[in-house]
Every structure is written in structure tokens, then in C-alpha cells.
Design goal:
The protein is α/β, with parallel strands linked by helices. It contains 15 helices and 8 strands. 46% of the residues lie in helices and 16% in strands. β3 (27-31), α1 (42-48) and β4 form a beta-alpha-beta unit. α1 packs across α15, α2 (74-88) crosses α3 (100-111) and α8 runs antiparallel to α9 (186-193). The chain is globular. The protein starts with a strand and ends with a helix.
């Protein structure tokens, strides 16, 4: 499968976007999670071949895309996605998202449902659902995401995670979350982790967490986010869930439909962990074909 690369000017910065597949096939726009990049979608792009015309970007602040000092709040991030889709001239793609990309996918579908045909979220609860669970200690979700308070410390996390020891820990954060031992694409994990060579490479991805906590603490931005939730998601929405996920609660995620204001097509994948694209891309591709 040939994968092409381009730089796209959108929302005031330059994004790296990879694309594959037939121009006559259904369009899929992919949004990755933390600490990944467009490469995490490559196994799916190769599996889908010419069955889909796929686009995968590197989000704001990630290696490959510009890393400005600001703009890591969720409002700017979903406007980034909108701007890239429009710059590419894509007409109502399927929005395929994972992890942090999934959080943005939920919000995007609230705010810009007219720009997509369907939403697929992989292993990420609705952001309102997850936030409420953290505050209420539902199914131990508060302690499951133990790294969030650590990421709020200035400059230290990005420095440490780009040391040799830090990159080893990043690699382990992938492999320890696989559903079945030996299923993780370790070579691809190493490729993703190797992109973080210095603190500046990691600052943007960690700033997503800092900016979201700030959004929740500031009354004005918290009201803006709550107002966004009031518009129900109107596009067909599928949640693909690696059922061996151990840090994001499936029990919590099952409440996402109530906060999204829509019925969810819940598709669990037994014996698959959090990083579905890196250990079960064939299973995920089957779900994508079904949705298409």
C-alpha cells in the first residue's frame, strides 16, 4: 500500500497528513491518541487498502506538525480537525478516532455534525462521561488515569519522558496495555516513541492534559464546554472497545450515549487492549467495513 504525505495549512499552522487508498473509495479521516501519531493508523491503512480513501494527521504539537506555544484547548483542537478536513476538500468523511483523538471526536460530532457522515470512537469514553466519573470516583476511574496529575507539573514530565529511561517507560506504557501477550506491534511502538528526542517534542502532547484541566477550572470555558454538550450528536456513532482495556473503564464508557444524546453501536473486541490499531488492526478493519 502506497502512503502519500503532504503538509496542510489549516487554522494558522502546518499539519502533516498521510493518505492512502483509492480516491473513489469512501473517505475516512483518522485522529490519533496519546502518545501516538499518524503512524498508529498505518496498519489499518494497509489492511483497508483500496477499500477506503484514508487520511491520518499528526495533531497540533506532535512531531511532524507545528508545535505553537498555545492552542491546546479542546475548542482549538476540534477547530484544527475542521480546518484540515476543509483544506483537504473532504466531503463528509467517516471520522475514525482513538484515545485523545476519541475525546476530540466526541466533541467534534457535537459541534460539527454536518461535516461528517459517521463517528467511530476507539477506546475513549465521552469526555463528559469520563470527567464525571473522575470527580465521582466511579469504578476507580480517578486512580486509573494516575498520570494526569503528574502531567500538570510544569516542564518536568516532558523532560523526563524524552530521556532514555522516559522513552523506555513510554514503550512499556504501550506493551503493558496489550490484551494478549505478544500481539503488540513492538517495532511500530519503537517508531512512535523514537520521535520524542527532546522535551519540546513532548510538550505539546502533554499540554493537551494541562489545557483541559484549565478548561474545567475556569468558569467561562467550563460553561462553553457544557454548552457544547447540550447539542446532541446526530450522526451514527459506533464505539469499538478493546475489552482488555485496564485503565479506561468500560463500565464508565457504557454511559457515553447518555451524554452524547444518541444511541451507540457498542462493539467490544475480546482479548484486545487499549491500543487497538497496534495489536488488532484486522479486527478493527472489520468493524470499519461494517460501519461503511
Amino acid at each position: 500500500m502506497r502512503i502519500e504525505h503532504q503538509d496542510v495549512q489549516a487554522n494558522g499552522i502546518t499539519f502533516h497528513v498521510a493518505s492512502s487508498g483509492s480516491v473513489d473509495a469512501p473517505v475516512i479521516f483518522c485522529v490519533h491518541g496519546f502518545p501516538e501519531g499518524w503512524q498508529s493508523w498505518r496498519p489499518v491503512m494497509e489492511e483497508m487498502g483500496d477499500e477506503a480513501h484514508m487520511f491520518a494527521l499528526d495533531l497540533r504539537g506532535y512531531p511532524g506538525t507545528d508545535r505553537p506555544k498555545g492552542g491546546y484547548d479542546v475548542f482549538t483542537l476540534i477547530d484544527d480537525i475542521k480546518a484540515v478536513i476543509e483544506a483537504l476538500g473532504l466531503e463528509k468523511p467517516l471520522l475514525l478516532t482513538h484515545d485523545w483523538g476519541g475525546a476530540l471526536g466526541w466533541l467534534f460530532a457535537h459541534r460539527y455534525p454536518h461535516l461528517i457522515r459517521k463517528l467511530v470512537v476507539v477506546n475513549c469514553p465521552h469526555l463528559k462521561t469520563l470527567t464525571r466519573a473522575v470527580f465521582r470516583f466511579e469504578d476507580l476511574q480517578t486512580v486509573r488515569i494516575f498520570w494526569v496529575p503528574i502531567f500538570l507539573v510544569p516542564w518536568l514530565p516532558e523532560w523526563f519522558l524524552t530521556t532514555a529511561l522516559g522513552r523506555w517507560i513510554l514503550k512499556r506504557s504501550f506493551t503493558l496495555r496489550e490484551g494478549e501477550k505478544g500481539t503488540m506491534d513492538v517495532a511500530l511502538v519503537e517508531e512512535l516513541v523514537s520521535r520524542y528526542r527532546k522535551a519540546a517534542d513532548m510538550r505539546g502532547p502533554i499540554d493537551y492534559y494541562r489545557a483541559f484541566v484549565k478548561t474545567m477550572l475556569v468558569p467561562k470555558t467550563r460553561r462553553q464546554l457544557n454548552a457544547l454538550y447540550e447539542s446532541p450528536i446526530t450522526v451514527p456513532t459506533t464505539v469499538v472497545w478493546g475489552a482488555a482495556e485496564n485503565l479506561l473503564s468500560a463500565k464508565v464508557a457504557l454511559n457515553s450515549g447518555k451524554d452524547a444524546g444518541c444511541d451507540l453501536d457498542w462493539r467490544p473486541l475480546p482479548r484486545v487492549g487499549h491500543f487497538v490499531t497496534l495489536e488488532a488492526h484486522a479486527k478493527l478493519s472489520r468493524e470499519i467495513r461494517r460501519v461503511l
